[in-house]
Design goal:
The structure is a homodimer. By secondary structure, chain A is an alpha/beta fold. Chain A has helices at residues 20-29, 85-97, 120-136, 151-156, 177-183, 201-209, 227-240; strands at residues 3-5, 11-12, 15-18, 37-41, 46-54, 58-65, 75-81, 102-106, 144-149, 163-167, 188-193, 213-215. Helices cover 32% and strands 26% of the residues of chain A. The A-B interface holds A 68-72, 90, 94, 97-99, 136-139, 176-178, 216, 218-223, 226, 229-230, 233-234, 236-238, 240-241 and B 68-72, 90, 94, 97-99, 136-139, 176-178, 216, 218-223, 226, 229-230, 233-234, 236-238, 240-241.
């Protein structure tokens, strides 16, 4: 069944107001009518709803809250050296399916992509990918996307997380991911992954000096676009299976 | 360091003979000389070698066997409904990095790709992808690739594995993957994954009747190209971290 993502403010006394753009989708793409059912997600819960009226906006009546929560119990933020567009889109589509909470592109010194300005068009395109993948994987929330921050901003963000893990190859590891996940119930994990050509020496030092824990992602060298998928899969396996 | 994949028969009394095509790579791409070092992998072990002579073929002397084994302790075969070319290539590249033992394309009734004949060109292209990904991820063996079997052949292959798992959405699960992996040390696991549009009813019935165990891959619906990546990552996490 079709799934729409809304803000909590769009719900009032069991009635949901759907905006013009989603109304266009309901009317002209799905060709739905009064009485038809849709799911609505407010970034925390999902609801089964019935269409009450369709005009410029659509109003829905909440029939029931869905009990099944498809979100990971821990918020995983992936921060990654800015990737080439095609790779970034592939990673974002996959991470959305895998339950990632947030994706942050970071300017790193070896990033091939040197983008200071990200166009609105590009951000719209990414938001569309996230929306479609969230719908297809039946999530209750949209993955957050931050297109571009500096390396300095990344480091100063560490304080917002209760665990920061550094996914680097050929480094001596502090601890295994399994040990970390079994020791403590984390709420907000930040993972740092390099761009295609890896980290510079000074970036590595800065990350370690800011007390990130270096972990391994298995015995083989993974390309940067596969590393975050491995991490989300491993955490989902540990938490959900 | 450059890594070449050979057959065991190319090793004789500590001397390795490298074929013409890899010799071309050593001479003209890497521009290496006598005395330079390379790694050689015979699908089980990897060796540090020194170049002894370069002519039409190259001869190497084994300096030492490498102790670090980057292969998973369990052989995972992914069988998947035949995918569109681009998706199949993406999956194969990722699975090679993640330590997959074998990939088998299967004709399923909902596959968009209806290929009876796979051209040699196409198979060469896939083998090249596997070789490059094996080298980059520093594996000791090349992932095996079977381009195309019938669904009937898939079912008759079940006897070659000590565990067959069926990765389907919206099915009641027999058991969790974590339970399976903790109960027993499997040597050869076959996983069955659908094409883009999923399995037909009769395919599902045949798989279950042949005693495959239905398992879950987390709480969200994964697209077919992400499902095998999840599975390999989860098994690597369980076995190696």
């Amino acid at each position: 069944m079709q799934r729409y993502f809304i803000n909590k403010t769009q719900i009032n006394n069991n009635i949901v107001t759907i905006n013009e753009s989603d109304t266009h989708h309901i009317k002209n793409v799905m060709r739905m009518s009064i009485g038809d059912n849709v799911y609505v997600c407010d970034n925390i819960n999902a609801y089964l709803c019935e269409i009450v009226s369709i005009n410029e906006v659509t109003t829905l009546r909440i029939v029931k809250k869905l009990e099944n929560n498809p979100e990971l119990s821990v918020n995983i933020t992936i921060s990654q050296g800015k990737l080439q567009r095609e790779k970034e889109e592939m990673v974002i589509k996959a991470l959305t399916q895998l339950g990632c909470y947030q994706y942050i592109g970071v300017q790193m010194s070896k990033s091939i992509v040197k983008t200071k300005k990200i166009t609105d068009n590009k951000i719209d395109r990414i938001q569309k990918i996230i929306k479609e993948a969230s719908e297809q994987s039946q999530r209750n929330r949209l993955m957050k996307y931050v297109s571009n921050i500096t390396f300095k901003e990344l480091i100063s963000n560490f304080v917002n997380y209760d665990l920061v893990i550094f996914c680097d190859i050929a480094e001596s590891k502090n601890v295994t991911l399994k040990e970390l996940l079994s020791e403590h119930k984390y709420k907000n994990i930040l993972a740092i992954i390099g761009p295609e050509s890896g980290f510079s020496k000074s970036e590595k030092d800065a990350i370690k000096n800011a007390n990130a824990l270096t972990i391994s992602l298995g015995k083989r060298i993974l390309r940067t676009e596969i590393a975050p998928l491995f991490l989300l899969s491993a955490i989902s396996y540990e938490e959900e299976l």
